[in-house]
Amino acid sequence: MKIEFAPRSVPLERRLQTATVVQWVFSFLGLVHACTLLPSLRTPPAGWSGQGMWGKWFCLDDSVESGEDILFFCPGDEKSQELSMDWSLQLVKTADLDPGQNYIFGFHPHGVLVAGAFINFCTEATEFSKVFPGLSPHLMMLDLWFRAPFFRDYIMSGGLVTSDKESAYYILRKPGGGNVLIIVVGGAQEALDARPGAYKLLLANRKGFVRLALQHGTPLVPVFSFGENELFDQVENPKGSWLRCIQDFLQKFMGISLPLFHARGIFQYSFGLLPYRRPICTVVGKPIKIEKKPNASQEEVDKVHQIYMEELSKLFEGHKLKYKVPEDQHLSFI
């Protein structure tokens, strides 16, 4: 295989962007493991003592459920903007959102590493606070990631919260409005189908977020991130293959998916785990008004879910040609 190396003449700005992306990818693939082992690095009994102290703090601290930031920077400040990844990113607003109201954003697709959701809603790379003034985003993430010491604090500093009912209820019940709960509806399982040219969404039977909206009377906002699936290639894993069977088993057992992805490297463009430099445009649709029904029937949930899928399809069809999606490509829901 011929290796295409990066030219020496790459501008410093591009090199700094690459360094930032390296840090971001390492956060997902390596930092969590390092943080998990950190309390045990010292020999017993000191290592056991470190784990014990962490366990006590984890059990007593309720900032995970409350969704409060606990480190030194939050989305919107200068430091978080410096840590963002800036490579041809856009956040497009199709309707104004009332800062006195809470909202639930349904984000699609998951992609391999949820790049669009993290960049747009956990940093100021696309100036979320200016596009949607008065709103504070809170991206939901699997509970598993919050069990690693220090890594938990690292992700909470970006406004991430656990994907459980307690966190959702806390955010949506805050008085005065101004909060956005972002749910990546397809979840980790959808990552196994993330590859260039794929427009298959795991949504047909995902209705928990709809019931949550009905319980609180919170408007639903469909969001589609064009370019999300173009960042990485993935090893072929069709349904029924031995690889997909193993991945599905691990996803059910561990709660996280393990897509075998690849793209480019740091100093060459032929192979590696860094994403391709592809544009991402995240389009935020119009809010769907939801009547509050704490005890909604399954029929009522199904009706709102159908409306949501129709609005998401309209959003995709209305913008796809702008972002070089072939005209004959349409969303499919599984």
**Count of the separate structural domains:** 1
Question: What is the C-alpha radius of gyration, as a whole number of Å?
Answer: 20 Å
State the total count of DSSP E strands. Answer: 11
> Given the C-alpha coordinates, what overall shape results?
globular
Mean pLDDT: 85
What strand order characterises the main sheet? 1-10-7-2-5-3-4
Major sheet summary line? 7 strands, mixed
Q: What gap, in angstroms, lies between the N and C termini? A: 37 Å
Helix/strand order, N-terminal first? HHHHEEHHEHEHEHEHEEHEEHE
Q: Which bin fits the share of residues in helices?
A: 25-40%
Number of helices: 12
Strand content: 5-15%
Family: Belongs to the diacylglycerol acyltransferase family.
Keywords: Acyltransferase, Endoplasmic reticulum, Lipid biosynthesis, Lipid metabolism, Membrane, Transferase, Transmembrane, Transmembrane helix
EC number: 2.3.1.-
GO biological process, one term: diacylglycerol biosynthetic process
What does this structure look like?
This protein is α/β, with parallel strands linked by helices. The chain has one domain. It has twelve helices and eleven strands. The chain has helices at residues 12-37, 46-60, 63-66, 78-82, 115-122, 128-131, 151-156, 165-172, 187-190, 208-216, 242-254, 298-319; strands spanning 89-93, 103-108, 136-141, 161-162, 179-184, 200-201, 220-226, 233-234, 261-262, 280-284, 332-333. The chain has a seven-stranded mixed beta sheet, sandwiched between helices. Strands 6-11 form a two-stranded parallel ribbon. Helix 7 (151-156) links the parallel strand 3 and strand 4. 33% of the residues are buried. Mean pLDDT is 85; it is low at 69-86.
